[in-house]
Recover the amino acids of this structure.
């Protein structure tokens, strides 16, 4: 017995390597596909080898789940279109497929009775691990659509995705300049790039394993930091300043009690307020 075509899709942007193509039951359950043009909707349905293109939202009302996979800058317009489409939202789940946006972008649909959620691949797992957040019904529908013996979903409550994204930022955008600073220090010390990479790889692995074993207790304050900073101030003041401030912020973060780590409605500390920093570790620069 064939499954009913109970999933609708609003799509846009590049679909050549979309993770939607690897959703476990999408090929069986996808029905209407809507895009900015009928031609694009047809092309997307063909690339997914599932569903059929439609010109308007008329057939969406018969579907219990609506997937949205559009560029982030087009999302607001899509939500506005859905709100004015005359769809009955009770009993429906609307799930956003986006790496950086979360279900809070679908608040107007939630107010109309839809269960809302978001789904994205977790980097580094080759499309075998997905993060799903949102309302309970939206999470259940997403897991049923995606999971099989190989693919698994990590589920978190609605509104928690920004905290997950903060982890990616800490291990990506914020970690990158630290690695770059370490690499530059090794270069100035005369270490070749190949050996430098090997040292950095080992250090990062040691640090991660230490944290896995001991958590916050595994932190060890930098040793001989003053002499390191003096050497850096003499060769690269910008790098010295970055390392000094990073050390101070790390000390602040690790010294404060966990329950005081974040004040309600405000950041725990601001890197722009120099009066919050301890006195500089290097008093004399030569």
């Amino acid at each position: 017995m064939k499954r009913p075509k109970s999933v609708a899709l609003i799509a846009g942007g590049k679909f050549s390597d979309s993770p939607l193509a690897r959703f476990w039951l999408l090929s069986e359950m996808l029905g209407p596909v809507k895009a900015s043009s009928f031609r694009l909707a047809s092309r997307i349905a063909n690339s997914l080898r599932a569903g059929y293109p439609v010109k308007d939202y008329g057939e969406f009302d018969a579907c219990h789940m609506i997937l949205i996979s559009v560029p982030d800058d087009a999302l607001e317009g899509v939500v506005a279109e859905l709100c004015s489409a005359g769809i009955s939202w009770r009993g429906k789940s609307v799930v956003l497929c986006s790496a950086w946006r979360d279900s809070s972008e679908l608040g107007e649909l939630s107010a109309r009775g839809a269960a809302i959620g978001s789904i994205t691949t977790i980097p580094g797992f080759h499309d075998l691990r997905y993060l799903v957040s949102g309302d309970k019904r939206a999470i259940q529908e997403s897991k049923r659509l995606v999971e099989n013996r190989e693919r698994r979903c990590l589920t978190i409550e609605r509104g928690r995705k920004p905290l997950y994204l903060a982890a990616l930022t800490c291990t990506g955008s914020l970690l990158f300049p630290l690695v770059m600073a370490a690499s530059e220090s090794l270069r100035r010390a005369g270490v070749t790039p190949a050996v430098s990479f090997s040292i950095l790889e080992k250090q990062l692995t040691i640090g991660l394993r230490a944290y896995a074993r001991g958590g916050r207790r595994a932190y060890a304050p930098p040793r001989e930091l003053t002499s390191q900073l003096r050497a850096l101030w003499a060769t690269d003041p910008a790098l010295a300043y970055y390392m000094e401030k990073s050390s101070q912020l790390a000390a602040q973060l690790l010294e404060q009690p966990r329950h005081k780590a974040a004040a309600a409605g405000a950041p725990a500390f601001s890197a722009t307020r120099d009066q919050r920093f301890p006195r500089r570790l290097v008093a004399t620069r030569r």
